Amino acid sequence: MENVDQIIATIGGVRKTAAVLGIAPTTVQHWKTHNRVPAWRQSDLTAAYDHAVSQKKAA
Predict the structure, then answer these.
(1) What fold, for 4-58?
(2) Per-residue pLDDT tens for 2-56?
(3) Is 52 in contact with 10 (CB distance < 8 Å)?
(4) What residue ranges do the domains of the chain occupy?
(5) Would you tell me how many other CB atoms lie within 10 Å of the CB of residue 41?
(6) Is the dihedral of CA 17, 19, 21, 24 positive or negative?
(7) pTM over 0.85
(8) Which of 15, 13, 22 is nearest to 44 (CA)?
(9) Cα dist. 14→5, 50, 58 in Å?
C-alpha cells in the first residue's frame, strides 16, 4: 500500500477522508503529518482507499 499522504490524496483529501470515515479532519491531518494510522483505523482507511480506487477505475 502507498504511504498515508498518498492514500488520503487518492480518497480525495483530508476533509473527504474525514467525512467518509465519520471523524474530524484534524484527526486525518494528524495521520498525514505523522505518516501513521492507528491499527484499529487501518481497515476503515483501507476500505475507503479501495472504494476510491475502484470508483476512479470505473470513471
Answers:
(1) 434 Repressor (Amino-terminal Domain) (1.10.260)
(2) 799 999 999 999 999 999 999 999 999 999 999 999 999 999 999 999 999 999 8
(3) yes
(4) 4-58
(5) 14
(6) positive
(7) yes
(8) 22
(9) 9, 16, 23
